Every structure is written in structure tokens, then in C-alpha cells.
């Protein structure tokens, strides 16, 4: 049984302080199977999975000095999809309810989670547990022996790794980040977001990236920079483009936590009209490798966490803390043009693969946010956009096609 309550982690405090109607800080991950979903079996699978993941069976509450999670006996219920992707989960009308949602449509299972509770790594583990339990119910005697993805202890899964691995490292003052170019143009009305799901061949993209001598993240990041630059007004083309990339800190620390454990880094570059993918991708890759050096990542993590260890900070009332977080987050956002989150390859037990077609991920945002994931040879770019114009994405995918890559693109409808 999970402990009755625990405080939110450092990243969660940012999400809680900065939720908006357009960006309720919700992410969605989905799994599409080969057969349509059986609602009864899915609900039984969700109930079984909830018992395996007690740290997610919580409600969120606001205290005088901090927010905290409290364990609940509520039983999650999967419903047929009837909301827009990434609909709010932490709003007054949902007070004292679970802060994740499971839905289904056709052969697809959707898991949506309030980002204050976990990050994409924890979310994918939870979704894979639901899928494993669902398929075991659909094929009894065939898949019952497949182990659950949840192999860590309850204590490890619930660990606040920011606090646990804080080392008090001091680093030299980082170079001042230039104010980045912000995507211009009208936003969609009614606080809407439009979602785009692009499918490419992972093998083809990796082969092209290797030809350029760069990583997949650098190839995609450089391609996005060029698409943005092509849509920049002439008077703004001397401005820096900054791509924010969330980094999974589990790759740097021995953590199995299912809570948030990531930092964001920024790759910045000022392009010229002479730039091409062949010139931008190596620069992007070199800058990213320097930023991702373990010493730099660990120093950044400690820098971010050290505020939690300042004397007296815990006794500051929550409304003051939230105001300060919103202010500094606004300052930080000035250094971001777009977000590219590479969530990596989604792996499942070999026995389950014949029953699974694909995975995808999205995150709500105020601008342009792309989540990258792959399953088998299917590389999926899930983009959320607050912009009326789709020109940046049109240029991005036309660039992929011009590179000889096979592209399939879907988009949600929006009211204009």
C-alpha cells in the first residue's frame, strides 16, 4: 500500500503554477492494437494495473505551503473517447478525482496524465502495463506468463529522485542565453490546440542522420530549425532559434522512479540564407553533445534543485511561491522557440508485438511542441500547435519528403 500522502516534486511545482486553459499541462500517450478494444476487458485491465501502480492512485491537494498527493481508493474507469486530446485533468470540477484518464477509440488505448504526477517515462511504463494486462485478458493461456513492465519496488517508483540525487554541485555561471525568436501569428480561437501525427520510417531517418554524421535528435532538431527559419519574417532572421529538448535524467542517475525526473536543455543557433541541413545538422549535433555531457547535466540538475534546500523556503506561503515560479518560467520561456522531446524507442515483450501496431505521444502547450517516439520501424512525431498557421509543419514535412523519406501525416480538426 502506498504511503497516505507525499509532497510533489520540484518539476511538478512548475506545472502546478503554470497551468492555463490552453496548456493544462497534460500529456497523452496511446497504443494502437490490431483489434478493436473490448471495453469490459479494458476496464478490468485498468483495475489490475492500478493495483500494480499505487503511486498513481492519488488525488492532488493544495496546502498552505505546498501541494501534495494523497492516496485514494477510487477505481479508475476507462471510457470511450469523447474529449479533445490532452483535456484538463486538474480543474475545480474534477476536484478530489484521479489525475489521469484512460479512454479508447477503435483499436486505440489512450492514457492522459497530469504532468505534475509523472513524466513520459513513467507514463509509458503505466500504459505498457495496461496493454500487457489487457492482452493477457484477451488471450488467456497465451500471454498470462508475460512479465509486467513494472519491475521496480514501490519505494523506488515513488522516489523523489531530484531530492535523492541532489549533490549541491556548484557550477560556473552559465553563458547568458539570447532572447530567442518566438513563433508569430494568430493563435487558434477558444484556447484550442491542433494535433498532428506524422509517421516516418525509423530506418530511413536513422540512415539519413548517419549520412550527416549526427544523431536522430539532431537531425530532427536541425530540420525543425530550418522549417522555422523559412517562415521567419525578413526583419527577424537575425534572431536566434532555440529548440528546447527535455532530457531523461534516468540516463545519468541510477533511478527507477515513476515520478518526474527530467531537465530541459536548449540548442540555439542563428541561421543564414545559405544554411542547409548539411550545414545546420552538424552544428546542432555538436552543441547538443556538449550540453549533454554528464558533468553539465548533473550540475544543471543541482542548480535547479538547490532552491528546495534554501533555509526558510518551505515556510513561504504557496501563493507567493506560485507567483515567483510563474515569473521565472515566463523569463525562461523567452529563450524557447519550440520544444522537441525525443522519448526514444518503445519496447515491449516479444510475445506482445504481434498484437500491437503503434505507439504515439502528445503534450499540451502554448506554442509548438513535438513528441518523438518509435516502435519497430514506425517513427512518430506527435505535434501540438496553438497556431492557426500550419506553415512551419508544412515546410518540415516537405523537407522530409525532399530528403526522400516516406511520410504519412494526420491532423485533428479545429474550429476557426
Q: Let me know the number of strands.
A: 15
Query: Secondary-structure element order, as H and E?
Result: EHEHEEEEEHHHEHHEEHHHEEEEHE
**Portion in beta strands:** 15-25%
Q: Cα distance, first to last residue?
A: 48 Å
> What's the total helix number?
11
The coarse silhouette is globular
Structural class: alpha+beta
Question: Sheet with the most strands?
Answer: 7 strands, mixed
Structural notes for this entry:
- It contains 11 helices and 15 strands.
- The protein has helices spanning 10-17, 39-52, 120-138, 154-157, 161-164, 202-212, 216-231, 277-291, 294-305, 318-333, 391-402; strands at 5-7, 26-33, 58-62, 67-71, 79-80, 100-105, 108-114, 194-201, 241-248, 262-269, 338-345, 356-363, 368-375, 378-385, 408-411.
- The strands form 3 sheets. Strands 10-9-11-13-14-8-15 form a 7-stranded mixed sheet.
- Strand 6 and strand 7 (108-114) form a beta hairpin.
- The protein is globular.
